[in-house]
Specification:
Shape: elongated
Structural class: alpha/beta
Order of helices and strands: EHEEHEEH
Number of strands: 5
Largest sheet: 5 strands, parallel
Radius of gyration: 19 Å
Strand order of the largest sheet: 2-1-3-4-5
Helix content: 40-55%
Strand content: 5-15%
Length: 126
Amino acid sequence: MAVRAPLLVHLNAHEHPLLECATQSGWRVASVGDAGVVSATLFVAMSEAESKQLRSLCPDALGVCSQHSGTASDLVVPVDAAVAPLTSVLTHALSVFELNEAARAAGNDIALRRHRTRQLTDIGIA
């Protein structure tokens, strides 16, 4: 099974340096509209409104905003930031995404085991 490159999504952050850094690092970069939920690793917003919209579409993604936007984003990276040091942000976003995926898989496994245990209990009672 081929591993897909991590995905960075944005609405209107074409000038943000994180997009250039992600492209150089082999990430997929996509602009997303209101057309459904995306399984993104990272999102970049230019305003609080964009940040809230992207957070609702990508609840598990690491959120980056170009200005302080309250609780909808996780990190503030200004538009005039240097590109070179941003690779650590990408690395961190990927590790957060992988941890979320592992937690989700473990939760699914626990739910399946509980279901099987209940089935065995029902068989034992009958």
